[in-house]
Write a structure and sequence with these properties.
The protein folds into two domains: 114 residues, no CATH class; 42 residues, no CATH class. The protein is 30% helix and 15% strand. The protein is built from four helices and five strands; from the N terminus they run H-H-E-H-E-E-H-E-E. The protein starts with 6 loop residues before the first helix and ends with a strand.
């Protein structure tokens, strides 16, 4: 199957776990809103910079590693053979006249979250995969969105072990 993502998104999907890539490919194929992968793999240095500027809650200097960092399934960083378990996306405006405009509104990202998390749940149920997909608008996985989070990251999606 050929990718519906553009070159930049495909590049940003390098080293991302195949389960998450498959979910994102399925989502972009059926979504009414086009989206792009703006970040997949992240270096420890970039993760530290994001923490230092308040754009991440995980501090690599204290051994807290983002799922964007190449790692083994147990979370141990491994920049040589590890995989990336998280991506950040951006949605494009649906109006062709301003198509290149990236939109960050809650409604659009909630729509995409429902689609991506739902496809992840279907894949988990139908294939017996070890992973599910968590969205940065529902970190605690309770289904209550936008109201009970200490840190909102609506464009963020990551894999987590289903038995965690």
């Amino acid at each position: 199957m050929s990718s519906l993502f553009g070159n930049r998104s495909r590049e940003n999907l390098q080293n991302v776990h195949p389960f998450l890539v498959e979910i994102l490919e399925a989502a972009v194929g059926i979504s009414r809103v086009d989206f792009s992968i703006i970040e997949g793999q992240r270096t420890i240095e970039r993760a530290q910079m994001l923490f230092d500027t308040g754009r991440s809650k995980l501090n690599p200097a204290e051994g807290e590693y983002s799922r964007h960092i190449r790692q083994l399934p147990d979370g141990t960083p491994d920049e040589q053979s590890g995989l990336v378990y998280a991506v950040d996306i951006a949605a494009f405006h649906v109006d062709p006249a301003i198509r290149q405009k990236i939109i960050w509104d809650e409604q659009t990202l909630c729509y995409l979250a429902g689609l991506i998390v739902g496809l992840g749940d279907i894949a988990y149920t139908e294939t017996g995969a070890d992973y599910r997909v968590r969205w940065g608008g529902n970190w605690n996985l309770n289904g209550v969105i936008l109201h009970d989070q200490s840190f909102d990251d609506y464009g963020h999606f990551e894999m987590y072990r289903a038995y965690q």
